[in-house]
Amino acid sequence: MSEAALVQATIGDSEFDRDTAVTRRAPGVYDIDLSAGWTIINAVNGGYLLAVLGRALADTLPHGDPFTISAHYLTASEPGPAVVRTDLVRTGRTLSTGQASLLQYDDQGREVERIRVLASYGDLDELPDDVRTSAKPPAIPPLDQCFGPADAPAPVPGSSAITDRLMLKLDPSTLGWALGSPSGKGEMRAWFGLADGRDADPFSLLLAVDALPPTAFELGLSGWVPTVELTVHIRCRPAPGPLRISITTRNLAGGFLEEDAEVWDSADRLVAQSRQLARVRL
Amino acid sequence: MSEAALVQATIGDSEFDRDTAVTRRAPGVYDIDLSAGWTIINAVNGGYLLAVLGRALADTLPHGDPFTISAHYLTASEPGPAVVRTDLVRTGRTLSTGQASLLQYDDQGREVERIRVLASYGDLDELPDDVRTSAKPPAIPPLDQCFGPADAPAPVPGSSAITDRLMLKLDPSTLGWALGSPSGKGEMRAWFGLADGRDADPFSLLLAVDALPPTAFELGLSGWVPTVELTVHIRCRPAPGPLRISITTRNLAGGFLEEDAEVWDSADRLVAQSRQLARVRL
């Protein structure tokens, strides 16, 4: 864990908040310096990038909470300067919709679009309390019986900077891949938090859904599983405390797979659901 | 079933193809007359509208098959004239990405945006044959033991024009709602085809994922369940013959629910997966 963990960080004053902060240069134009601190293997984590886009949209739209956000990943982002452009698509009473693009510049100064997003925002605090969720929280052993990167030689090749910023403890029964014997089941379960102790909010949930090792590892595949598209539904403002996350894959075929994530908070609420389409090398 | 069913229609020459055909007026600008034939209750079916947008994007992009398409529904579409505007976002070797908007005009001739879409297209015929799907097809009784609108007094209030164009046979075990005793389970299963016998293709799959009665009916809720966002993954070109579709809801809470659809073809391939976020009146 990073030194920041020695001091409990709070929502609005944490590594994650600083590294996802966008600066409005003009209406609908935001500057951001993409941090190298959220990279894994050779990639900037797609959930971190989605949180950056999500924060720019929250500044642009009349509503502040992402209810559903759909991102299509176009080219690989790199740490360093980037620009977010946003557009207000529609303003409604309870929901507003916006669009955003993350842009970087190549050696010749040409604009390269990294990610394009459509999102509908609302106010989570305005939702009725009615809960009829039939899904059950994932069965994960207690935190102290789960394992993180610090407990083993880094199972992931290349950069693992992001692991210093996460409290990620994997269910041993989904850790076979790290020990050379993947289960063959397309499932990964973990306890999740931010290393500096910052509690979860809707923006860190956008990071959480893409923060576990890919299910492809437990399916016996290795290497990068680049996201083509990722859609996240934020259904409830998460309660303080660690989150439980399960990701599952049921359709590995034709060089692609889906990854469904469920994020549960300490109050046993299913606070986020996501699905992504990703490429695999078969 | 409509009279068209007396003659087996083919892909490219069917009611569905005619009603989703867009006419290019200029590069990236398409005219379409939204058919009243695909309405249910008071709404134009969201899957039919997605197919219209999908066909315009197929004309705009260098690749012809939707791999993943994300639609945010802004305002309720009406039968009649509409315009689709498309933009090419990025061209890649195996995938290209585009954006599209469906527009109609109000009494004062003002443009009103109905739906905005982001999509990544490819070529399904270029995908490797490798299939490691762990999901299983839904257990649905044989077609002749399932029931459609023709077998009962229309269970859905208001318009049911779309039912004339579909071969939709529901699993009796998910029909409790139609008999006044909903199961309480958020699941709906059915055999699906087009009434005129046209086989499925990637565009009719965009219709299929949104064509069953809402799971909310089996959860004891009634009335319209408007879609906020719908994302569809097309994973394989469907084999000829009827499709089996299951839709499930696991998180009805706070006035919203998710609806996950799986579409299986006659060759037992999971050809499409979708998830939508919809509003419910609790």
From TrEMBL, chains A, B:
Pfam families, sorted:
4HBT_3, 4HBT_3C
Gene3D superfamilies tied to this protein:
Acyl-CoA thioesterase, double hotdog domain
Q: Where is the Acyl-CoA thioesterase-like N-terminal HotDog domain?
A: 35-120
Protein name listed in UniProt: Thioesterase family protein
Tell me the ranges covered by the Acyl-CoA thioesterase-like C-terminal domain, including all copies: 155-280
Source organism: Streptomyces xiangluensis
What superkingdom heads the lineage?
A: Bacteria
What InterPro entries does the annotation carry? ACOT8-like_C, Acyl-CoA_hotdog, HotDog_dom_sf, Sec_Metab_Biosynth-Assoc, TesB_ACOT8-like_N
PANTHER family reported for this sequence: CHROMOSOME 23, WHOLE GENOME SHOTGUN SEQUENCE, THIOESTERASE DOMAIN-CONTAINING PROTEIN
